[in-house]
Fold Glucose-methanol-choline oxidoreductase N-terminal domain-containing protein.
Amino acid sequence: MTLTSEAVRQVPVVLLRLLVVVLVRETAHPRYQSTEHLLPQYDFIIVGGGSAGCVMAARLSEISHWKILLIEAGGTPPPESYIPALNFLLFQGDADWKFHAAPQQGALLAYESMLPYPRGRGIGGSSTINSMIYVRGNRRDFDNWEAMGNQGWSFDHVHRYFLKLEGYRETSNHTGKYYGRDGPQALEGKRWSSPAAHAFLRAGEQLGYSIIDPNGPEQIGFSLIDLTGRDGMRWSAAEGYLRPALSNRPNLHVVMNAHVAKIHFNEDNRAVAVTYLQDNKERRVAATREVVLSAGAIGTPHLLLLSGVGPAEHLAHHHIPVVRDLPGVGQNLQDHPAVAGLIWTTNKHSSFSPLRLLNPVHLHRYVQDRQGPFTTPVGTEGNAWFPSETGDPGWPDIQLAFVSTTPAIDFGLTSRQGLGFREEVYLDYFSEVFGQEGFSLAPFLTRPRSRGSVTLASHHPMHMPHINLNFLSHPQDVTDLVKGIRHALEVGGTPALQEHGATFNKRLLRACAAHGGHTQKYWECFVRHMATTSYHASGTCKMGPSHDSLSVVDHRLRVRGVAGLRVVDASVMPLIVSVNTNAATLMIAERAADFIKEEWRSRRRRSPAKGAPARNKSQGLSSDSR
């Protein structure tokens, strides 16, 4: 039996999944269920039950006389999703769409030709499988959105929506003074950190940086992460928004394991219904006010294209009748390229080892007190941001993630395939440090210049779309990531980390060794081989002014050239936020819900419908949503 055989690879996975029974036995998790008897029509149909879709379902159902339907392609969150440290079991599992990115020219050269591209599938979406990192974004990200022609999206406009969604629970990590306290999205600081993670903070201080709260006034500095969690457990958007709404709102219906295949338009190009596939049957349901697409930066453009909204030439190629020629649908795909493979070995017990999850002491501590390593996702423990060398120094172009383990720790049993490394590259580059504890420093490019696309592979709704990341197609992206590598090497060499025996893996990547040891050319080659996705897909239904030929939605997220159709998810970002994307996605949905309420109330005041019911006070998750 070889090292990479599927049987061997599954041994630790099966063992850890068995432990879930022990870990969650005393916790009553919500059982999301499809509504038994659906109506033939609803006021609003929301497609996608991920982060944005859960927010939209909860907020729109606050209007008690509106009938809301949420349609989700997946099912309920798997039990292991509630345990933060078991996040690595979720990729390529039942809660993952199992997308793959297409082969690249000049990038991703160390990875399999079809790189795994995880996206959450099921109630809660990617907030159910992600690393739970909560950071809003630099205020300049949002000011720039407005400068690009999107009125009302500056930081001063969106800040109150972050405060509205946040339910921050103060811990000893920092004061939490920058956060909202009463929102549905529970947030808390880390309950457990590796010794090396604390050394990472000291390393920043030794280099002259401050320890910061990344959601504070400025972003330059070092920090540990905040988590979308409560009491040591994952708190997805489904937990925060959807579960409370379903508990007492008969006007909200949910249908799961239902794959939306098409949006239907009438002769006036108004979205009036959707068709979905469930149990091998095709069903159709009508929307009297709007269809809201919250299927994510991959799923939303895919569904628009299947429905005839997108570049006319591309639609014609797949024999799809054109409803509206919108060249920008599926274009402008952005992600944060992150360089893998910069690893340091450490003294024993300084960093994180998966073997800790098999320790009965930690199991007992988690079950009894919700403390210890099970309370934090495997992966990034801290981040650093450095002043930009060009332009505004307060708007960093590099985020450095401190990951308290390495891809070599498990001998490739799960990490190689999960990350998508080609076997020969993985074995050659990492074999000398197999099984050794250590950490990785991964530079992220926060504002990449390269743009990819999501297009149709076929006109069949069940076929996966074609995802072209187009990484590193702009040469400046390579230059900037090499700069990020220099930051990583500087941090890794600090006395604070040397105290833990931090030793850099100096083995040269075989494909780049001809350029010599750690020269500029070597690192440029290293970036083209080892840079990979950070799973932050966004931008594929760009928000922009009418004169922007690639804009898909206006500043109130209405799809251009049609009626009754809105996009609410990360795909509307005109430029990706310069941090992890989940927090901004929640904010976008909170803002969009208010747009819808304002517009439909305004229409009602202007032309009340005959026999319309009296206006009711909304029953909200918070009073300011009324």
In short: The first helix runs from residue 6 to 23. The two ends are 62 Å apart (CA to CA). The first strand starts at residue 41 and ends at 47.
